[in-house]
Amino acid sequence: MTAVPGTASGATAATASGAVLVLGATGTVGGRVAARLVAQGHRVRAASRRAGPVDGTEAVRFDWYDPDTYEGALDGVDRVHLVAPTDSATPADVMLPFLARARARGVRRAVLLSSSAIPAGGPAVGQVHEALPGLFDEWAVLRPSWFMQNFTGDHLHARSIREEGVIRTAAGEGRVAFVDADDIAAVAAHALTGARAPGADLVVTGPEALSHAEVAAVLTEVTGRAVVHRALTYEEMRDRLAASMPLEYAAMLAGLDRANAGGAEDRTTDTVLRLTGRRPRSFRDHVARAMQSVGAGAEAGAER
C-alpha cells in the first residue's frame, strides 16, 4: 500500500483550531474517536440523534434526515468524522447535501468511515467516497474490515454466541482480517488531527485473516464456552438479517458475506502500524480484553 503524508511521529494540528464534529459519537467507532480526541486535548462536538453525553465533549443533536439539525452541529467546526446512516442503502442522498453545507460553513477536512468491502463509486457509502476528494482538499476514507466487536458487543453475532453458542454466516470458509474498533479509532484520530491529511483511501485490518470457524475456535479457547460456526446460504442469511432491518440493506450485508466466501476480505494491511506506530490488536487479545471488561458493561453494537 502506498505511503501517505503524515505518520505516527508527525506533528498534530493545533488544538486551538476549530472543533472536530464526530458523527455517530455514541456508536462503536464514533465513541472511541471522540474519547481519543478529547484525551489528546481537542475540542469535540459529539453528534447523535439523542445528543447523549460523551465525557469531555459538547453534545449536539444530529439527524441525517432532519436538515434543521445541520447548522447547530456544524457551528465552530472545521473537521468532521463521517459515519453514514445505517438504515439506508443510498446514504449519498442525505450525506452529499450535508457535506456541501459543511464545506460552505468552513469545514476543511473530512474523514469518512466506509468499509473495506466498498470501493469508491461502489454501492451505499461508496458514492460518498467517490465524491469526497472533490468536496474537500483535506480528506481521508477509512475502509476497515469487519469489526471484532461483532462477536463481543451487541451485534447479531454476539447475541447468538451468548444465547446459543453459534455464529451464523454465509461466508463459508472465507477468511476475514477482523479489526478492533480501538485500532480504527486510532487511525481516524490521526487522519483528523495530523498536520497533513492522508488524502488517501486507507484499508484498515487486523493482523491476521481468520475464517468464522477459526473465530469460533478462539472464542471457545478463551471463554471456555463451546462456540461453533454454522454456514448459511445467501438467501438464509438475507432473510435472517431482514428480521431486524430493511430487506434491501439485509440483502447487501448478506451479499458481503457471500463475497467473503470467495476471499474478498482475505488480506491484511499495515495501515494501523504505519499511521499509529503500534501493531493492531489480535482477535485473541480482543476477546480476552472484552472478557475483562464485561463487568463494566457491554460495548456498543457494531454495524459491520
From TrEMBL:
Regions crossing the membrane: none
Tree of life domain: Bacteria
Cleaved signal peptide residues: none
Pfam families: NAD_binding_10 (PF13460)
Entry-linked Gene3D superfamilies: NAD(P)-binding Rossmann-like Domain (3.40.50.720), UDP-galactose 4-epimerase, domain 1 (3.90.25.10)
InterPro entries hit by this protein: Ergot_Alk_Oxidoreductase, NAD(P)-bd_dom, NAD(P)-bd_dom_sf
SUPFAM superfamilies referenced in this protein's UniProt entry, alphabetically: NAD(P)-binding Rossmann-fold domains
Domain NAD(P)-binding stretches: 24-119
Protein's UniProt name: NAD-dependent epimerase/dehydratase family protein
Organism: Streptomyces apricus
